[in-house]
């Protein structure tokens, strides 16, 4: 689960990390009060979306009057911001973060991720931060450090000092940086993060370190023990079909093809999509209905798939293990009748009682292409999608 910048900075403040004084607004009419509450004569207004590249897309603006803050909010609230990290539809702006200005002397980069191979939290740092960090990684990889942190020794200052050297911090800044790393590690572990990014981490005119941005991803598998973070979930930032699928405990990812896929098991789903691609087709989605594949779940899956107007055919590939294929077939038939599908459906059943399942499909008085072989089923779906 992703957090907005203002939510990330709220967590930063809880862990004694230096952030700018700011206020988030959800209505343009609150912009003037926000500026007055923050104080000063210059502010930065930032559209809040779960995507990078906001500055280049016009979603971040330096303002010097409350009137301009109001105009910025009126321009973006309720609109969609398109960046290089979004699709062509962009993401909905529901909130604006207004912050005090920071006089920047130097921009740095700092992030942390989980390295599953080494089973460590790895900090990534660079003395070249800001909007072009991707170019630094590509053209000057020697300016980036990857420092693994031993989870059994989170207070090892040598790791922080090693990162500080690559960031080219002086002695005073290094003394600030050591507790910063310790606090970031506590935040990462205690809140079950999967990614943390500060871009830029800046040195201000006073020579102090300051977190000018905050990007946080939380391990969705650990949300059950983070109820306070669950409340920060913003459904508007998700693909509508993906959000609906999640409510029904279905694993769904939108793609850009025209062949809807309904499969039980993530591995089988990936294999199904690969087979579609092999025959020249393009999957419209990844959808794993899970091991049960009940009528209720299959019906819900059909409804989600069919909300994509690009879908020309649906390929159902179910492996009957604990649940028999004849029961799955009855569920598929009932679901198709309930949803009243108008496009072709190709069904491939394999496993426990597959013959009985195929017989049920063949006797059903609906247009189903029942094919036992996956390659033949995928090829048929590709032909029907043309």
Report on the architecture of this protein.
The protein has three domains: 1-19 and 103-237, D-amino Acid Aminotransferase, Chain A, domain 1; 21-101, 2-Layer Sandwich (Dna Ligase, domain 1), CATH 3.30.1490.20; 239-385, Rossmann fold (3-Layer(aba) Sandwich). The chain contains 13 helices and 18 strands. It has helices at 5-14, 31-38, 66-76, 133-139, 157-166, 171-190, 227-230, 240-247, 266-278, 295-306, 325-339, 354-363, 374-385; strands spanning 22-25, 43-47, 60-63, 80-81, 91-92, 96-100, 104-115, 120-126, 144-149, 193-204, 209-211, 215-218, 251-254, 259-263, 285-288, 313-320, 345-351, 368-370. Strands 7, 8, 9, 10, 11 and 12 form a six-stranded antiparallel sheet that branches. It has a four-stranded antiparallel sheet with strand order 1-6-2-3, covered by helices on one side.
Number of DSSP strand runs: 18
Biggest sheet details: 6 strands, antiparallel
CATH architecture of the largest domain: 2-Layer Sandwich
Q: Can you give the mean pLDDT?
A: 91
Helix content: 25-40%
**Shape, please?**
elongated
The count of domains is 3
Q: What portion of residues belong to β-strands?
A: 25-35%
Radius of gyration: 25 Å
Tell me the number of helical segments per DSSP (H or I, 4 or more residues long).
13
CATH class descriptor of the largest domain: Alpha Beta
Looking at this structure, what is the CATH superfamily of the largest domain? ATP-grasp fold, B domain
Quote the CATH topology of the largest domain. Answer: D-amino Acid Aminotransferase, Chain A, domain 1
Instruction: Classify the secondary structure makeup into a structural class.
Output: alpha+beta
């Amino acid at each position: 689960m992703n957090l907005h910048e203002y939510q990330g900075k709220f967590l930063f403040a809880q862990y004694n990390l230096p952030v700018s004084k700011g206020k988030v607004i959800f209505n343009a009419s609150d912009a003037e009060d926000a500026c007055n509450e923050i104080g000063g004569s210059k502010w930065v207004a930032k559209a809040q979306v779960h995507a990078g590249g906001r500055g280049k897309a016009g979603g971040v603006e330096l303002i010097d009057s409350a009137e301009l803050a109001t105009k910025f909010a009126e321009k973006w609230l309720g609109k969609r911001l398109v960046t290089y990290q979004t699709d062509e539809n962009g993401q909905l702006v529901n909130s604006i973060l207004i912050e005090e200005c920071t006089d920047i002397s130097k921009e740095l980069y700092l992030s942390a991720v989980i390295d599953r191979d080494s089973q460590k939290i790895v900090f990534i740092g660079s003395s070249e931060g800001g909007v072009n960090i991707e170019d630094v990684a590509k053209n000057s990889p020697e300016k980036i450090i990857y420092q693994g942190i031993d989870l059994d020794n989170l207070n090892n200052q040598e790791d922080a000092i090693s990162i500080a050297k690559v960031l080219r911090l002086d002695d005073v800044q290094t003394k600030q940086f050591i507790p910063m790393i310790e606090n970031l590690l506590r935040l990462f572990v205690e809140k079950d993060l999967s990614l943390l990014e500060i871009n830029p981490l800046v040195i201000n005119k006073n020579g102090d370190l300051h977190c000018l941005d905050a990007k946080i991803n939380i391990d969705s598998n650990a949300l059950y023990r983070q109820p306070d973070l669950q409340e920060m979930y913003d459904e508007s930032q998700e693909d509508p079909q993906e959000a609906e699928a999640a409510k029904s405990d279905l694993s769904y990812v939108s793609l850009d093809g025209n062949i809807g896929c309904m499969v039980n098991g993530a591995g089988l789903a990936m294999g199904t999509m690969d087979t579609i691609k092999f025959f020249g087709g393009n999957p419209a989605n990844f959808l794993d209905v899970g091991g049960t594949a009940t009528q209720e779940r299959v019906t819900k899956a059909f409804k989600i798939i069919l909300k994509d107007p690009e879908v020309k055919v649906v390929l159902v590939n179910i492996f009957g293990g604990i649940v028999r294929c004849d029961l799955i077939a009855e569920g598929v038939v009932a679901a198709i009748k309930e949803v009243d599908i108008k496009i072709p459906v190709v069904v491939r059943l394999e496993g426990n009682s597959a013959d009985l399942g195929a017989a049920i499909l063949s006797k059903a008085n609906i247009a189903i292409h029942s094919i036992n072989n996956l390659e033949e089923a995928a090829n048929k779906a590709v032909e029907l999608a043309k």
